[in-house]
Fold this protein.
Amino acid sequence: MTTTTERPAPAVPATSRPRRRWRPESRTMFLLIAPSVALLLLIHGFPLLDAFRQSLHDGTLINTGSFVGIQNYTDNLTSEVFWKAASFTLVFTVVGVFGSWAVGLGLALLLRTRIPARGVFKVLLLLPWVVPIVVSSTAINWLVATSSSPIPQLFETLGLGQPLFLADPFWARILVCVFKVWISFPFMMMMSSAALASVDNSVYEAARVDGATGWQQLRWVTLPIVARSTYISWILMTIFCVNDFPTIFLLTGGGPIDATNSLVVLAYRLVFQNQQVGEGVSVAFIMTSVLVVISTLLYRQIRKAAH
């Protein structure tokens, strides 16, 4: 009896992974969008790189100056003026984002009810956002600028003294923050109204049948459903608030005693008033870095809310 031994199968040579080839449609699409992408990079990328180059120099608007590296960044990060402006920017942004969101969401929920002349009411609520900021700031100045203005006179009539809103640092901060909420809540109202339009009323009917109160419906039904739209509006409003120059500059100019001096106003003063371009541009880049971090964190919340 003979035995046969099995021979091992020959090893199959490893083949390299086939290269992914572009389909003709993808290649055509790339060629069509390439000029637009190149133009956008040229329009936005070149000024950004040039601004970063200027932030590394100690020049003026006319002369680039000498190279100082990150000295402008370290000077700002160790400056009391910078951190004072940063603290007010934080307060201004938090009040602007969450204040306008709370008012906008409340009005959006109110507009879902059956109220008389709801369409006219909705149009009137958009006026603070539609009216140019120059007109709104002029009106606020007329209301509070001097001791003979209507609101100081009203305070005096009520026995609350006669506050100088634009001369007192405390009242100036409050005025600027309230004014920001006033001109921003229509945007939040529109965002909330668009999100609430997709909510089926049967969800609320089921919640009422289960005995949910109005607050519980808001907490466990409305807010989770509109969470994605809420995070998007927070990102946009955060960017609007941090970069908001006209609201503060037209109303208070950053005063009194730099009480309402935000980072964007500080950057403007350094560049165009003090001719310290490097320090001013470095402030803007620090602002941009913080905004990127905040937007990234909120964007992650959007992705979680989408699942």
The chain has a mean pLDDT of 85. The chain has one domain: 82-306. The two ends are 69 Å apart (CA to CA). The longest helix spans residues 24-55.
